[in-house]
Each structure stands twice: as C-alpha cells, then as structure tokens.
Fold Lactonase family protein.
Amino acid sequence: MKKLSLLAALCILSVVMVSFQDKTIPFYVGTGDKGAGSSISLCELNLSTGQITLVDTFNNCMAPGYVAVAPNKKNLYAISSDNKVSAFSIGGDKKLTYLNSQPSEGTGPCHVSVDPSGKMIFVSNYGGGAFAAYTLQADGKIAPATYKEQYTGKGPNEKRQEKAHAHFATASPDGKYVYVTDLGSDKVMNYVLDAKNGKLTPNPAQPFFSGKPGAGPRHLIIHPSGKSLFLLNELEASLTSCTIGKNGVITAVKTYPTIPADYNGPTNTSAAIHLHPNGKFVYVSNRGHNSISGFKILPNGELEMIDQQTKSISTPRDFNIDPSGKYMVVANQSTDNLVVYDVDAATGKFAFKAESIGVKAPICVAFL
C-alpha cells in the first residue's frame, strides 16, 4: 500500500514538473523604432528551453519605447514619441486592445510606471524635463493628469546636463512615496503619494535627494522590503546603494563602478537596473562596454559584484529576469534582437544561453 502511495505521489510530482517545464511566460517588448516596426511585441519565453517566440505585434502608437504592466495584469501602459501615454487592456490571450491616450505633459517621454495599488501611473519626460501623474479609471483608461511639474536645474556635464531631464519614476512598495530621477540636476525628487485621491506632494522630510555632481541618476530599483534603494548613475557608470529611512528619506551608503576601472573603449553609459525575483541580487546594463553586471545584496545593504558578462550583448538599453528567476532576457538596441542568459538563483551568476528572435530597436522588456 505504501509503495502504491509513493508511486502515485511520484507520478503527481512528475506531472507537476513537466507542467512547470513546459510553461511559457508572456512578456512585452517596447521599441524605439518609428517606422514600420513601430509596435509593442508580445512574446513568450519557454521555461524549459529558454526559447522565445514572437506571438503578435500591436501598432497603436508611435515608437512605444517603454511599457509597464498594471499589478492586476489586466492593463498595459506605454509612452510614445508623439508625446503621449496610452492605455491598453490585456485579453485572456495576452493580446492588447487600445483604450485611450493622454498627453505626456512634456516632450520626449521615456518612462512610465504604475503604482502598487494600480490606481495611478507616472510619466517622465526626458526631452523637456517634466514629470506628470495620472489617475486610472476602473477599466484602466487614463484620466487627465492630476499632477504636473516642470523641473529646472543643470549639472557639470555640459553636453548631457544642460537642463533638467526627468528619466524615471517609481512608487515605493508600500505606495507611500514616489521617487523621480532627474539626470540633468543629479537629483532624485521625493514625493508623498495619496493614490486614493490621486495626489502627490513634495516630501517635507526630503523634497529631493542630491547625488554626486555629474553622475547623472537614470533609473533606480527599490527592494521589496522597502528599506533599500539602488540608484543607477548613467553618466558615471556607477551604482549607489541607499537606505530608505523614516518618512521616505533616502540616504546614500556606498557607490560602486559598473564597469572595469581600466576600460578604455567607446564612451559608456549605464542604462537599466533590475532585481532578481528572490531579492538577493541586483543587475545593471552598460552601453559602450556592452555588458550586464551582477551584484549580491549584502545583509547591511552594501553590494558585492559577483559577475559580469558581455557575450552577444550590444547596446543593452534594457533587460529583465523572468518571474521564475531562471532566465534573463537582454534587449540589444543596436543589433535588433533579444538574447537569453541562464541565471543561477543561488549564486546570482549568469551565463549566455542563446541569441533569440529579432525585434526592431528593443528598449524595454516587461514580463506579465
């Protein structure tokens, strides 16, 4: 009887394992292309083989560079080169249906994100240096902006910091604060968020965090614990570990280079930053050096570089790690393709697996 029970258990386990191995995870790719390939691509990643399949494309907005999926996975939002932010519904087949658009309230939008409650989105306009926040309707449509701010200021890099350049915005995991990077002034703006009423107010405890002059803060990622923040500096090619204290105040801990000190190739600018789903590792991409660098998050919030890979990586504007933590998908902007890496969830190290499908000028990878 025991043998039969064990056999049954093993059969069930094998079915579960096969089911998991055969599972595919959908993701969306944004593009910087303004021509015939100007579309959001729906792809699937096979968790057994690491193979990527292109499922469909959606040509509803011009150069939908950055996309963001709502927490309920029923809506997707995209910025476009015609200075708009658009809403889409996600169907049962993961295909997109256009809902509506709103002005981005600035020029050159480069990033959009959704707050944890799914009630608001935030748009950063790199070209004009403006930031805007919007409430969302019950069906996911975007209402007119409820908050707008035109940033001012500049930095010591005369070519890249001649004025404000809002680059990225994200809410804290608890939905209490919103942080916006301004590459032009080396600041991270800090707001208190009231998503229920669609309101933002400058944080009285710290209206902004000042980074190193000339570093050029681009993107940041907040640990799920809400206690650590990792700030990627595009111009300096560095990563700053920070703490988030009481009242949402950011404090820098230590800064680390993201490329070798002896690098003397083409000018390098850092681009994207993502956490491993297990919360133990943080990864960043470098354009010029053309690499992905991996760091282990230490108990005290500091970092330790554990790996750096360059194979088949070319202008990695973005990359992302699938929710299972098994694969990394790298978006090569200059070679118009996606590359897959295996990731070791125990060590954080990663290894080249295969070059995958072609996508025109991919600049964002968002898993569903």
About this structure: The longest strand covers residues 142-150.
